[in-house]
Automatic annotation (TrEMBL):
It is found in: Cytoplasm. Keywords: ATP-binding, Cytoplasm, Kinase, Nucleotide biosynthesis, Nucleotide-binding, Transferase. Catalyzes the reversible transfer of the terminal phosphate group between ATP and AMP. Plays an important role in cellular energy homeostasis and in adenine nucleotide metabolism. This is Adenylate kinase. Pathway: Purine metabolism; AMP biosynthesis via salvage pathway; AMP from ADP: step 1/1. It comes from Thermovibrio guaymasensis. Signal peptide: none annotated. Consists of three domains, a large central CORE domain and two small peripheral domains, NMPbind and LID, which undergo movements during catalysis. The LID domain closes over the site of phosphoryl transfer upon ATP binding. Assembling and dissambling the active center during each catalytic cycle provides an effective means to prevent ATP hydrolysis. Residues 31-60 are annotated as: NMP. GO terms for molecular function: AMP kinase activity; ATP binding.
Length: 187
């Protein structure tokens, strides 16, 4: 059972690393970005709402995201296998809601993996990725939103003694190894 949050700026490699750990250890991977992009693609009501925020690099309102996570975390695979949260929480309000949800479920977090990457490298990576919301202007706004709303979670989790900081530049395999070490998953 693994119960972990992946934290870090856009383009830090949270998704890449989360998928690797999820597959290797058979843990459900919950990416709010993936959930929202799927909704946009399907053209659901959630998708239409989310798109207006994502296109500008803004955060989707807390209540909406918290509702999605509440529903997902209540499914039976989570109780059996745990979870890797990728892209949630992104605000203090979301972090507090997560604490509340996990205490209701009686499933405390094991660790928060903070993937740290320099700003220059982030912009380079996102421009190369070329997703719909990866234009220079939108990237700049996502970084600003990250600094203002998400970066405070680093201290929030450090104070709870849950934070493991990992430098996210280098070989993908090496970074995966460091994450496994931080989670106490040895070879
Ligand atoms: P990145 O790869 O840049 O970290 P994500 O795929 O995680 O991006 O998210 C893309 C967009 O989806 C965000 O810019 C935001 O608009 C929206 N989003 C994803 N997760 C959340 C969340 N927890 N709260 C609010 N908005 C979110």
């Amino acid at each position: 059972m693994i119960k972990v949050v992946f934290l870090g700026p856009p383009g830090a490699g949270k998704g890449t690393q989360a998928v690797r750990i999820a597959e290797k250890y058979n843990v459900p991977h919950i990416s709010t970005g993936d959930i929202l992009r799927a909704a946009v693609k399907e053209g659901t009501e959630l998708g239409q709402l989310a798109k207006s925020y994502m296109d500008r690099g803004e955060l989707v309102p807390d209540e909406v995201i918290i509702g999605i996570i509440r529903e997902r975390l209540s499914q039976p695979d989570i109780r059996e296998r745990g979870f890797i949260l990728d892209g949630f929480p992104r605000t203090l309000k979301q972090a507090e809601a997560l604490d509340q949800l996990l205490s209701e479920l009686n499933m405390p977090l094991d660790r928060v993996i903070y993937l740290n990457v320099d700003d220059e490298e982030i912009v380079k990576r996102l421009l190369a990725r070329g997703r719909a919301d990866d234009t220079e202007e939108v990237i700049r706004n996502r970084l600003k939103v990250y600094r203002e709303q998400t970066a405070p979670l680093i201290d929030y989790y450090a104070e709870k003694c849950l934070l493991a900081e990992i430098y996210g530049v280098g070989e993908i395999d090496e970074i995966t190894k460091k994450i496994e070490e931080a989670l106490g998953l040895g070879e």
